[in-house]
Design goal:
Elements lengths: L1 H14 L4 E6 L6 E9 L2 E7 L4 E9 L2 E8 L1 H18 L1 H12 L1
Antiparallel strand pairs: 1-2, 2-3, 3-4, 4-5
Helix pairs in contact: 1-3, 2-3
């Protein structure tokens, strides 16, 4: 799971840097992903990585205020976030190129 989260964070940071924040930590140079946050309009997708597991949620945020938080299984979190990333990509040529890079890579 740790390798998957690392790869996902790297792909998202490289493809959508203006929407992604990644917190890394660890001992002795082992800087694994602790938290991944993707902001897309009024949605904030958050993933927190523990030892072998992840917690995923989607927050509805309006004017900086979190109105609703949903805990989601990883597969649903990825599906929802992907759909919103696709919408962002459709609005932007740069976003479209980034999405193609993310999906092909």
């Amino acid at each position: 799971m740790r390798a998957f989260v690392q790869a996902l964070a790297a792909k998202l940071e490289g493809s959508f840097p203006e929407h992604v924040r990644v917190e890394r930590g660890g001992l002795f140079g082992d800087k694994h992903v602790r938290r991944l946050e993707v902001e897309l309009g009024e949605s904030r997708y958050e993933l927190e990585a523990g030892r072998g597991d992840v917690e995923c949620r989607r927050r509805a945020v309006v004017r900086g205020i979190s109105l609703k938080t949903e805990e989601l299984p990883l597969d649903e979190w990825i599906d929802r976030m992907s759909a919103e990333l696709l919408a962002v990509a459709e609005r932007s040529e740069r976003g479209r190129a980034a999405l193609e890079q993310l999906l092909s890579g």
